[in-house]
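Hi all, posting the design record for the shared folder.

TITLE: backbone redesign
STEP: 1 of 1
STRUCTURE INPUT:
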């Protein structure tokens, strides 16, 4: 503000100077006059801004041709007169000027103004700029946080469309658009910091993409046949003894035959990768010497995270990721990405300025009625404003890129309810869901919603439209409660075991709309679920306050690791029960990497910052017989599931016969061999019999023939003592063959016992028995 303007300023009730016309209580940031500490690098004068850092002399800027506004990002191509170069295009709606900044290996910066503006897109073609060139943007505009304007050209910004990123975010004070260490913190975000951030932030990399995926063969596994395996690229491969050390923790490591061999031996059909978009670490973690291990803090929606690359970060990570996808496809395994489009790593108003905030803060983020503040439906400080066309375009362009150019087969959307919000409330007719439904590329891939966020009305399990599947946390809770003896009755369990028709039998949705899981990356591992009742997150440095307290866990009699052989045997039996229940349930099962071999995090149920042995998969567990047996059981039940279509139903059970001479497709039995009555569903029960008829499977095969299969009886018993269970006789079955018994440690060979219908079978304590109807 000029001295003349200062003379015209008035004061608010607190005595702070206010620009004419500004509401009382909202002081203009440039007129705040607290005492300036010498250590801040601030020069007193007409406004509060950080003194610029030393600017290195740059060579003469190259010629910038007009270029084109489409496509967005930095795209290498042949320009006019056959001259090769790179077209730069950036949407920055309210900006006053944009510079693309080119960086040499020694850090020398060349600034090139983009003078062409088409539909709020700044663009230009730079002849001679080739793949491997490191770059960023400086965007000029007003600094007025009170109205949501936070432009600061001193900050080098990452291109939202960058295909590769070189460098890591370390978050020193210079990368903040405001004075992070300003003495008066309640106005710190209004004081602009003009120190140059370029030496401290990663740069985008120009990438040449000429790969058309002609030779790639996508598995295209039907939803009903899918088995998802959630894994962390780094954690899954970091300790694998058969992967070369230089490849561990990388995309190339996951592509290695040793890693893929484990997946194929198990029988999973898809890997769901924890976030692989370029992400940054939070300041509070860096201050404690920790890092964001899970990666739910995205900053680059087109770039594979450079930290997982074994081949280099100057664009090589793109090719390495593609080779990983090809290797998995060759093994018949689909690749699903866990994506975080609900928020970015820039956090709230006190967060760093890395990309979108400095490009157009008001255009990209949801702001409160007080535009200085951010609407936060994610618990991470900000929420992307998906209703805005340019934000919706950013997300859908990113999704299409990962499908068409990077080869992935689907997405799991973190906090998907935040993306489905219109102006405030969750709206299943929102622009985001409408665009996905009609997009010719995206509507054909696998779409998984985490159907909640942290805002009001954010819990939306069962509400997403057709085409979408959902993480079903009601399945998780019911199965956990049954096996720890905490269910008041078995009504909810009955729905969960058979596809959750109460949630998904509408609008043409199918049982595979339910992604069933007992554990996920967030929470206890399966082994910890039966070894701990309380979280033990002290290593996170947050006083054990982080992570949920609602674990629905049972430690089998001792908290933590035990030397008691009986406790350990019971824990292993519970693991077999939980895994078998999951893999026999109707719906899409999701396993978490390492649960099949007894991985533990020592009771940490929020290991998001544990990039160490706590978070990594310990492959030495397979050297121990008891954990090898658990892995063998998992593979065996998955083979049963793959072999028998009655366990992979494409339609909900009706409870009625599908043919005049057929049995009902589903029946429930009590311990005495009679069919359960309505009253039985409302009574406490530890034993449940589930009959699945293979004669009455709706639908036909690819040749139009009826689908038939064996029929099965599953008996789930969560009680602490053995019970007698009368096997249903005619017309259900004359004889049964025992296929699976989770009370047994050794699962190498099937039990093979044959029993007559009407026989009273002794069901071992805490076990699952699976019996096949014998001919």
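Okay, here is what came back for every position:
SEQUENCE:
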């Amino acid at each position: 503000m000029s001295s003349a303007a200062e003379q015209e300023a008035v004061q608010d009730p607190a005595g702070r100077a206010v620009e004419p016309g500004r509401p009382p209580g909202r002081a203009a940031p440039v007129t705040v006059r607290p005492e300036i500490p010498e250590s801040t690098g601030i020069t007193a004068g007409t406004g509060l801004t950080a003194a610029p850092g030393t600017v290195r002399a740059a060579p003469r800027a190259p010629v910038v041709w007009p270029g084109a506004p489409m496509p967005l990002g930095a795209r290498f191509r042949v320009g006019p007169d056959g001259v090769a170069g790179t077209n730069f295009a950036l949407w920055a709606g309210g900006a006053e000027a944009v510079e693309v900044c080119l960086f040499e290996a020694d850090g020398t910066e060349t600034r090139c103004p983009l003078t062409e503006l088409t539909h709020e897109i700044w663009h230009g073609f730079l002849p001679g700029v080739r793949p491997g060139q490191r770059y960023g943007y400086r965007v000029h505009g007003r600094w007025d946080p009170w109205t949501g304007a936070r432009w600061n050209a001193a900050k080098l910004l990452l291109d939202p469309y960058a295909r590769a990123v070189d460098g890591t975010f370390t978050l020193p004070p210079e990368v903040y658009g405001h004075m992070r260490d300003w003495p008066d913190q309640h106005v710190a975000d209004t004081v602009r910091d003009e120190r140059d951030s370029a030496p401290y932030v990663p740069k985008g990399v120009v990438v040449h993409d000429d790969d058309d995926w002609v030779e790639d063969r996508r598995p295209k596994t039907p939803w009903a046949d899918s088995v998802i395996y959630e894994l962390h690229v780094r954690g899954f491969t970091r300790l694998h003894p058969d992967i070369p050390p230089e490849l561990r923790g990388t995309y190339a490591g996951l592509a290695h035959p040793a890693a893929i061999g484990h997946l194929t031996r198990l029988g999973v059909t898809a890997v769901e990768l924890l976030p692989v978009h370029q992400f940054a670490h939070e300041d509070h973690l860096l201050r404690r010497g920790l890092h964001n291990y899970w990666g739910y803090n995205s900053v680059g929606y087109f770039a594979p995270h450079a930290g997982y690359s074994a081949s280099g970060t100057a664009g090589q990570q793109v090719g390495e990721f593609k080779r990983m996808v090809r290797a998995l496809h060759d093994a018949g395994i689909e690749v699903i990405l866990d994506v975080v489009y609900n928020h970015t790593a820039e956090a709230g108003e006190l967060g760093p300025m890395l990309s979108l905030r400095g490009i157009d803060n008001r255009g990209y983020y949801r702001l409160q009625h007080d535009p200085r503040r951010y609407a936060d439906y994610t618990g991470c400080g900000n929420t992307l404003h998906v209703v805005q066309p340019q934000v919706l375009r950013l997300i859908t362009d990113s999704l299409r890129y990962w499908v068409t150019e990077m080869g992935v087969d689907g997405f799991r959307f973190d906090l998907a309810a935040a993306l489905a919000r219109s102006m405030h409330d969750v709206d299943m007719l929102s622009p985001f869901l409408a665009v996905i439904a009609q997009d010719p590329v995206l509507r054909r891939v696998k779409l998984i919603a985490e159907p909640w966020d942290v805002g009001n009305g954010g819990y939306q399990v069962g509400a997403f439209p057709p085409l979408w599947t959902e993480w079903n946390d009601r399945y998780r809770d019911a199965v956990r409660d049954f096996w720890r003896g905490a269910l008041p009755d078995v009504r909810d369990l009955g729905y969960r075991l058979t596809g959750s028709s109460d949630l998904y039998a509408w609008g043409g949705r199918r049982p595979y709309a339910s992604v069933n899981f007992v554990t996920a990356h967030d929470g206890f591992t399966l082994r910890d679920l039966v070894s701990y009742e309380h979280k033990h997150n002290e290593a996170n440095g947050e006083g054990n306050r982080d992570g949920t307290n609602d674990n629905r866990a049972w430690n089998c009699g001792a908290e933590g690791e035990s030397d008691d052989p009986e406790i350990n045997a019971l824990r292993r039996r519970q693991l077999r029960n939980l895994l078998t229940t999951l893999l026999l349930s109707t719906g899409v099962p999701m396993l978490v990497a390492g649960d099949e071999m007894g991985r533990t995090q020592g009771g940490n149920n929020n290991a998001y910052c544990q990039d160490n042995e706590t978070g990594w998969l310990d492959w030495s567990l397979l050297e121990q017989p008891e954990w090898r047996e658990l892995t063998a059981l998992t593979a065996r039940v998955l083979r049963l599931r793959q072999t028998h279509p009655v366990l992979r139903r494409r339609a909900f059970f009706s409870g009625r016969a599908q043919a005049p001479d057929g049995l009902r497709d589903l029946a429930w039995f009590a311990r005495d061999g009679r069919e359960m009555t309505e009253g039985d569903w409302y009574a406490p029960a530890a034993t449940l019999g589930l009959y699945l008829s293979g004669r009455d499977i709706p639908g036909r095969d690819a040749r139009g023939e009826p689908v038939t299969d064996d029929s099965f009886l599953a008996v789930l018993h969560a009680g602490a003592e053995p019970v007698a269970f009368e096997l249903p006789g005619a017309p259900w079955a004359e004889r049964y063959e025992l296929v699976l018994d989770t009370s047994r440690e050794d699962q190498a060979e099937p039990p093979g016992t044959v029993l007559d219908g009407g026989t009273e079978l002794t069901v071992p304590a805490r076990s699952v028995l699976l019996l096949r109807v014998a001919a």
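COMMENT: The longest helix spans residues 565-584.
Let me know if anyone wants the other runs.
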